[in-house]
Amino acid sequence: MKQSSWWSHLAQRALRVPGFPFLLHLLSSTRFVVEGDSMAPGLVHQQYVLASRWAYRLGPPARGDIVVVRDPQRPWVPCLKRIVGLPGEEVLVEGDGCWVNGSPVFPAAGDAPLRAGADQLHWRLGPQEYVVLGDNRADSRDSRAFGPVHRRHIVGRVWLCYWPRERWGRVGVGAGWP
Fold first, then answer.
1. Is residue 41 part of a domain?
2. Does residue 92 lie within any of the structural domains?
């Protein structure tokens, strides 16, 4: 009979404690402050959120996830964006519309066009590339400005808003996202 290590025994007991997985998730998260209104109305200026740096160790980012990314042209600047295009997909941004593999994707917040003066942006994404857009596309610096984001530039998935108190709650996939 094989004996389990005391670490294994401790881990099994800890996972049975109510709230332990939440606490572990909380401790593996990093605090970010929303700067600007590029993700409005869902996330607004000066809102405090937590992003899990471990979220994508078990699986890849998914369409609709709100993530913290490093701007490839300004890597010291973290920004919050929504994943729209996944590796291997064809993404077209034209006027105020966005299509992935020929199918329309949930529209931007508001009635403003995606980017004034941009007729069409088209990408065929590589194996580790993602297209990220702000929900308030009229006020967002995103893939339309810096192109697809490599997986290594995704810092983590935003999962909780904790300030201000009236906006406290889980941050998840918005209405209309698969």
1. yes
2. yes
Structural domain of 123: 30-170
Can you name the residues that pair with 154 across neighbouring β-strands?
69
Identify any residues that bridge with 82 across adjacent strands, giving them in sequence order.
66, 133
pTM of the model: 0.78
71, β-bridge pairs: 74
C-alpha dist (Å) from residue 110 to 44, 95, 113: 14, 13, 9
pLDDT for 83-111, tens place per residue?
999 999 999 988 668 899 999 986 655 54
